[in-house]
Specification:
The protein is mostly beta strands. It contains no helices and 8 strands. The protein has strands at residues 2-4, 14-16, 21-23, 25-27, 30-33, 41-47, 53-57, 80-81. Strands 4-5-6-7-1-8 form a 6-stranded antiparallel beta sheet, with no helix packed on it. It has a two-stranded antiparallel ribbon with strand order 2-3. A hairpin with a 2-residue loop joins strand 4 (25-27) and strand 5.
Length: 87
């Protein structure tokens, strides 16, 4: 599971990281990334371990057709692994 903190999500529907950007859409507690390098990723908005809002991306549910992970902490500085979920 990967965690993205909402500070990377702007009110104008744009997400920004240190090296890239794209659009996002919120539907209730679901965050969809329809454009940018993470296009196709779907996450859930919920509290993190510190009870701060965060978007959680299930690693195995967010794969491209070729099996490559869309949102992966190995490739993205905008995400952090959740304790116990990697390794």
């Amino acid at each position: 599971m990967c965690v993205v903190h909402p500070r990377t999500l702007a009110p104008d529907g744009i997400y920004r990281t240190a090296s890239t950007s794209g659009t996002f859409a919120r539907e209730a507690d679901t965050i969809r990334l329809p454009s940018g390098p993470f296009a196709g990723a779907v996450g859930q908005l919920m509290p993190d371990e510190a009870r701060e809002p965060a978007v959680f991306f299930e690693r195995d549910e967010n794969r491209r057709a070729d099996g490559v992970h869309i949102v992966d902490p190995e490739r993205s500085s905008a995400t952090v692994p959740r304790k116990g979920d990697w390794g």
